[in-house]
Amino acid sequence: MKEYTLDEIGSIVRPTMGDNIPLVFYRILRIIGMRRILGESSGATLYMMGKQVGGMLDAQNIDEFRQRIIEMKVGVPELEVVDEDHVLVKLYECITCAGFSYTGEMFCDMESGIIAGMLEKVYGRKAKSTQTKSWSMGYNYCEFEVLLY
Ligand SMILES: [Zn+2]
Question: Which residues, chain by chain, have CB under 5 Å from ion ligand 1?
Answer without folding.
Answer: 94, 96-97, 108, 134, 142
